[in-house]
Amino acid sequence: MHRSPTPLRRIATRAPLVLALVILSGVIVSTAAADVPVISYTLSGTKGDNGWYRSSVGIAWVVSGGAATPGTCSSTTVLSDTNGSPQPCEAANGDGKVSVSVTIKIDRVAPLVTTAAPARAPDYHGWYNHPVAFSFSGTDGGSGIASCSQATYGGPDNGSAAVGGSCRDKAGNTGSNAFGLSYDATAPALSKVEVASRAASALVHWQSTSPADTIVVRRSARGNKADPTVFRGAASSFADKKIQRGLEYVYSLQSYDQAGNASKVVSAVALPKVLTLRKTPYTPRAAANPVLRWDAVRGATYYHVQLFRGKKRILAAWPSTNELTLPAAWRWAGHRYKLGPARYRWYVWEGIGKRSFARYRTLGRAAFIVPRR
After folding, report:
1. pLDDT digit string, tens, across residues 184-200
2. In angstroms, rounded to a whole number, what is the distance separating the alpha carbons of residues 22 and 42?
């Protein structure tokens, strides 16, 4: 008897929920990516140069993904001082652990300007009297010095002047400082230079810019080599008592201030007040109301003096001493005369015996000029 085959039993199965894996070339690739944490951050602060910050820096950490549990970066971090140490952040969940770090450099302090080096030494006794250049240097304990400035001081005049400079660090901070100096580039000036001729001296007067100026007075006699300096000091006058009678002198004055600046040379002529019978290589010009003087003769009781202008005798006198002061004007032989600008000749005799005897011995003659005043 033939039996029909027993039908097959359909077995229904429910596929389990499992993570499917695909093997490709020996690499196992997950069909669903692991949900590891993701870390990001934002920085806030004042940026400087060369990657430095010039203020406190805030780091705002953001951790996301798969119920991550933040580790070292759960909130905003504020940094006030760091020279570049890494700042880390870690986060982890069931799928993995992530670590991130950021390097931040902070320098909030300006450099210190410590030195102003002049290009040369002071010109005179600690003073500068023409422009001088300065180079500045400094120190910085943070990012380090990047550069320092240079400056040239050329005024205004001031005994307590100041020159300023600056230094910049690598973070961009700038520090400045000022350094003192004494500066005077203005030359003094002499004015009202005059010479008053006296019988025994020449009195030189002047005015200078400052009473503290040093005045140098040099003297030269007309027709002779220049004499050495006859005065140096702070004053407004000088009496030269070493002059020779009958000579013209030129006084050359120059003033120097405390910074060594020199005035222009100012000269004044001293005309002789006393005229003598001595021979000179030139005819001297006379000061106002000159004194005619000659060597005394032992035993002489009087002298005879005659004064000529051109060929005309305009004065005769019989002084008892060896000098005669000429007035500005006089009357003689019925005429009025004045000692005006002209060339004059004068003669001197020694009177022998009584004046009524009219006996004379010639002592000499000389000439002088009265210049226009």
Report:
1. 999 999 999 999 999 99
2. 39
